[in-house]
Amino acid sequence: MAESIDIRALNERIEQQSTFVTNLVTGMDQVIVGQKHLVESLLIGLLSDGHVLLEGVPGLAKTLAIKTLASLVNASFSRIQFTPDLLPADVMGTMIYSQREEKFISKKGPIFANFVLADEINRAPAKVQSALLEAMQERQVTIAKETFKLPDPFLVLATQNPIEQEGTYQLPEAQVDRFMLKVLISYPSAEEERRIVRQNISGEQKKPLRPILTTEEIHAAREVVRSIYIDEKIEKYIVDIVFATRYPEKYNLKDLKALIEFGCSPRASINLALASRAYAFIHRRGYVIPEDVRAVAHDVLRHRIGLSYEAEATNVTSDDLINDIINKVEVP
Fold first, then answer.
1. What is the CATH number of the domain that holds 52?
2. Residue 319's domain spans which residues?
3. 19 inside domain
4. For 102-152, what is each residue's pLDDT tens digit?
């Protein structure tokens, strides 16, 4: 009985705290047509303090969605256009000599912002990409011998183009694993595209968006998300899904053994739990249900499964494997 009272009280607290979710979605809808999954994924990243990687062909509003979200939050924003000639110092900052002070001082780079848009992240070489690792994981940057804390909240929202391979570099597995979600962006429906065309040829001047959320409110919402109840059975379900990517034969999925080079890391289990909580919060619930886990599983796991040569030769994707795993692993 005590537990049910706690859940009821938590539901009421979530109802109060989550009103900004509706306001954020409404603000995003003023600029972005459709793309509900994209908007929801950005909210999950914001509420879970996790970085998001968006993948899709050009023109699907990836950059626009990130800029719109940043403009709705009263926080600092910077955009870094990744190019083959970019240097780590262009992102992190460097030491410059001050004639006035007669000493070297640290000049901070664009990474020092609450929202960092890493546009076309796969255009930069590994040296630049690896410079992001410390920032994304430890939330700090080392310039020469000095270490600086990054602002809080700190969110890296990256985009990449999956089709154009000329002048691109594959992201190292260690870096990909630090993205909480990898979201695949699809084309809009015919009705949505008609609305996009209508909006862009109407000639009406769009009103600039005003911030409707402060960083303090984000911290408060994250506290509530952390208090959302996850039952032991749900925890076991999350671990079973992740373990099925490592030892598929133990879950009657022996056919997948030859298709998986390596399974998901423990970060997958952690992020699956965190994303499930955020998903429950967005849907005004104080507890996680199996459907929450299933809803976020593809975005959390797809970039953490290493496909074997056999899988690539037969055009099997990580999403196909996740579908098999989710359909086979026992639901509590």
1. 3.40.50.300
2. 227-328
3. no
4. 778 888 889 998 888 888 888 888 788 777 877 888 888 888 788 889 988
Distance in angstroms (rounded) separating the CA atoms of residues 112 and 93: 9
Judge if 247 and 186 occupy the same domain.
no
pLDDT digits (tens, 9 = 90+) for 184-231: 888 888 888 888 888 778 766 566 778 888 888 888 888 888 888 898
Query: What is the number of structural domains in the chain?
Result: 2
Q: What's the CATH code of the domain at 253?
A: 1.10.8.80
Q: How many CB atoms lie within 10 A of CB 200?
A: 10
Domain assignment present for 73 = yes
